[in-house]
Design brief:
Order of helices and strands: HHHH
Shape: elongated
Distance between the termini: 62 Å
Radius of gyration: 39 Å
Helix content: 55-70%
């Protein structure tokens, strides 16, 4: 007798925790930091420039992180395919080409000889089947 399913329990595998890669922003030194007492107007401009540079660096770092994540995902998919025995289309084409190089193709003379043999066998069995059909048709005419 089947046991009833428990509520709230599923047969799905627990999800793996997602690894988060944190980007470290490195402060950029500017000419203002080297000066002893910057003027108030230039300090604001330098601060804006620093913020823009930091934002740009953060965007570049995010792009690099996304690219690395895509590469890792592609590598995982490739490994999964290899474990499952699946090949990509490119791999299949390469494998087929290498196998075709290994084939020993028959000469024209050999091909014609074997083709003649096949045609002869087909004609022989065609005649045997015709004779058998003719005999059964003749016997059917005698009975009816």
């Amino acid at each position: 007798m089947a046991q009833p399913r428990r509520k709230g329990k599923s047969k799905q595998k627990p999800k793996k925790p997602v690894k988060v890669v944190e980007a470290e922003a490195k402060p950029v030194e500017t000419e203002v930091a080297n000066e002893q007492q910057p003027q108030p107007e230039m300090a604001d401009e330098a601060k804006v420039v620093d913020e823009k540079e930091l934002k740009q660096q953060a965007k570049e770092k995010a792009k690099q992180d996304k690219k690395l994540a895509k590469e890792k995902e592609a590598k995982k998919k490739q490994e999964a395919r290899e474990r499952a025995g699946k090949e990509t289309f490119k791999q299949k084409v390469k494998g087929t080409a290498s196998e075709l190089k290994k084939v020993s193709w028959p000469s024209f003379k050999e091909t014609m000889k074997k083709t003649g043999i096949v045609i002869g066998i087909v004609l022989f069995f065609g005649l045997v089947l015709f004779a058998f059909d003719y005999l059964l048709h003749f016997l059917n005419g005698l009975l009816f």
